[in-house]
Amino acid sequence: MSKESVLAAFASFLTISGVLGDFSMTAPANVQVELNGTLELPCHSSIDTKDSMIMWFIDEPLTGRQRILHWEDEMIHKDAVPNYKDRISLDMTETGAPRLLLAPARLIDNRIFICQVVASRIGSKEAITSVLVYERPVLEVIFINQSMDADGSMKTVGSCFARDGFPEVQLIWLMNRTILKPTKDVELEKQQVQKDQSGLLTVHLDLRLKLYPSLHLAHFACFMRSHIPMGNQTVMSNEYRLNLNYPPTEVQLFVVNSPKGMLLEGERVEMQCQADANPTPSYHFYYNNVELTGGVSGNTLILPDVRRNQSGNYSCQAKSKSGPELGVFTSTTIHVTWLEEARLEPAGPLTVNKGENVTVQCFSNSSHTPKYQWDKGGKKIGRDSRLVLRDMKLSDSGQYTCTSSHNAGHKLVSSISLNITVHAAPQSIQNESEVKKGENTKVKLICNITGYPRPSIKWEGASDPVNQWDVNKKQLISTVEVLMPAVPTHIKCSASNQLGVSTIKYVLNPIKDISGPGATRALSDIRGVVIAAVIVSLLVVALLGYVLFYTYRTKKLCFSHKASFKPTSSSQPPGETNGLNEGETTRLRSA
Description:
The chain is built from 3 helices and 46 strands. With 591 residues, the protein is mostly beta strands. The strands form 11 sheets. Strands 33, 35, 36, 38, 39, 41, 43 and 44 form an 8-stranded mixed beta sheet that branches. The protein has a 6-stranded mixed beta sheet with strand order 2-11-10-5-6-7, with helices on one face. Strand 5 (52-60) and strand 6 (64-72) form a beta hairpin.
């Protein structure tokens, strides 16, 4: 009976777990052991081994089941089976779990083992275990390292071997860590297997490729895959590369320190020429179609101090013995950017008079149109190359800076400054000042003058001035102290420079002191005058009151008499009066 038929017959018994009568038994369905190791086959039962007989069988493909050992009456009995009698033993140390030991394990042990337990008056049971004996193969790659022409022909480039292993493993070729599959450019024949006398296998797989220049940089490796637990189930070889000969088909030229070709004048420039060819081609450099010899080293051209006149077209030629006679060309254009130092017209320093206009022109030659900016004291005052200052004042004195720049690939900046000094005649805020204080008190007189060059100060009527000069404000402050005189006095401060004179007049008016003896007599006189004036005023008021009163009384009496002396009736004789003559009546009215 063949091994396959036995496996099929016992497929339903890979793990036996059941009950026949009063006992059960189990055994592992599969056991794997490395070649020359110890094979252990346990057989567990639920009854006491004293009351049973245990037997182990092997399945022979030709003769069928054959017993190799049995346990009975607490004794081990080995059957005379070739290749087994001297290698088998029985371990009964664990109750109810005898183990068949087979050492050293050999490839002939790749078969079915059967454990059978027979119990008197109960019956028998058995379990099947499939044994696999394996050996780790050795991976070996033979890769062609001799140079070959990349002409598109199909050639064997490598052979992969898995030597002296068992069972058969799978070999796989990789390119750049990706599994290669058969195509019109890749041939992978079915792997070949050879068995030696001991039964170990050697697996062989060749790699055939059409050779193209694109394979020059590819990495190849052989990958071994196994489906049994032989330590690492996958093993990969080292990586290999093909040594292919091919002429240059494409060439590249680039500037190392400026990919866009924008360079600063004075920089060190390095150009590299690269061509995909093997062996390395020879390189030739050209500037405006004229071959360069200086600064060339291999595939590199160095310009240690590039100048503006070196802008232009640079070419590279790559030539190979196996390629076309003229080789392959490529070119690039470099632009050297530059900015000359800024200059001014007029260059300065400048001296102008107050009220004048000033025009300064800033120039800067450059590879690109520059931008300009004017500054004074950190403040931007203009964005044109020309600076125009009108009606100059003293405060306009100072340093003016022109900055030229451009951003064509690189930031280039140049700055230049000039000083402008404004001259002005002395000038004061006021021309005359009056000071009033008590006699003999201290008076501080301040002469505040602006002008440049620094004015000189002269006091008339005062001495020992204290002068303070503010060079930034072009301001001179001169201070003197005097005693207020007894009578009005004039003091003069004069400031002068070569452009003019400015004068301030101070009028000192003393205020009389009312606390002395003379002041007391004057005060007494004033008091007498005031009293007399008050008396006269009172007399005038009294007289005025009397006149008004007299006038009022007179008018009232007249109205009273008119009412008393009306004409009587006609009984009074004509020509008679009331005892008064005309003159008396008149006096009465007057009264």
